[in-house]
Amino acid sequence: MNNKLLKVNIQKELKEFNLDVDFEFKKGCLGILGPSGCGKSMTLKSIAGIENPDTGIVSLTTDEETVYFDSSKKINLKPQKRNVGYLFQNYALFPNMTVEENIAIGVSKDHGEKRVYEMIKRFHLEGLEERYPRQLSGGQQQRVALARILAYGPDVILLDEPFSAMDSFLKEQLRIELLNLLKDFDGFSILVTHDRDEVFQFCDELVILDKGKIIAKGDTHDLFENPKKVQVARITGCKNISKIEVIDDYHIKSLDWGVVFEVSEKVSSNITHMGIRAHDFLPAEKDDVNVFDTFNSTKFEKPFEWEVTLANGLWWKADKQIHEHEFVVPEYLKVDPKNIILLEE
């Protein structure tokens, strides 16, 4: 039976807004997704003890409950007492220490040498033991930072935009490495990012933040498939969102695109908008359901997809091969009724 639980319910007054987050999860990796400046990093720092909330509670239950912070009981454990590993955006390695010395920080002397060797091997840092951070690439620095965190066996790993400063090749490589590491990690991990691909790839559960407030939380796949709210759809990457007029229980008119659509579920009274993912269009015949023409559309070539902007404002992404440079936009496109997302304001 899994009795592990990380609970976070904190409030903090900030210049731009008031941070007010409340979530808990029992296993795996939690993602916190949202635009820059929405309170993601402040939430992580409050869990780690780097920042102090004004009110609230942060606690971890494994075999027993450890309260990191409780404003009502005046409990506020220092960061070094929380057994939380924090991977900063800039990795925060000690510049005057070697790779080996950085990893050894915080490791008990009884198992230090053996543990450091295990981490050096695990993170493919052999041959770099005597180098200083300035002599390492960005990817090597991140591996050293992760090795340092894992070396002392944390209960919680906090990842603050871990790939934000990397080029795309290195980012993909380290995503795979980190994904494998987290699969083997028995504790909790929280990934903060504004990159929806990262949370979809890494996170079992997802919290979506906007201006310090949670606007959605739940299973990651469920939130992407059915975001329910306009702002959640935007943050999860839905490119086509329009206000609607309800025609009947299963038909709506897009006020932005001027198209009538059939939908697969009954339209409730609180639905004000609709969304269509940019990859969810298909070539169609004129008489198909949910069909519209592509006359006067504009296309842009990318390495692995075509971006087609229709005259009515709809945006279609069509997959392509790297060696294909010609693309004829079909006269008509359609969208399956089940792929139309019904949204509240």
Q: What does this 3D model show about the protein?
A:
With 345 residues, this protein is α+β, with helices and mostly antiparallel strands. Helices cover 22% and strands 32% of the residues. The strands form 5 sheets. Strands 7-8-9-3-10-11 form a 6-stranded mixed β-sheet, sandwiched between helices. A 5-stranded antiparallel β-sheet has the order 2-1-4-5-6, covered by helices on one side. The chain starts with a strand and ends with a strand. The model has no long low-confidence stretch (mean pLDDT 92).
> What's the mean pLDDT score?
92
Number of helices: 8
Give the topology string: H per helix, E per strand: EEEHEEEEHHHEHEHEEHHEEEEEEEEEEE
Tertiary shape: globular
Count of extended strands: 22
Blueprint of the fold:
Blueprint lengths: L4 E9 L4 E8 L3 E5 L6 H9 L6 E7 L3 E6 L4 E2 L7 E4 L11 H6 L7 H11 L15 H14 L4 E5 L7 H17 L3 E6 L2 H7 L2 E6 L2 E7 H6 L4 H6 L4 E9 L2 E4 L5 E3 L10 E4 L4 E3 L7 E3 L4 E4 L3 E5 L5 E5 L12 E4 L5 E3 L2
Parallel strand pairs: 3-9, 3-10, 7-8, 8-9
Antiparallel strand pairs: 1-2, 1-4, 4-5, 5-6, 10-11, 12-13, 12-15, 13-14, 15-22, 16-21, 17-21, 18-19, 19-20
Helix pairs in contact: 3-4
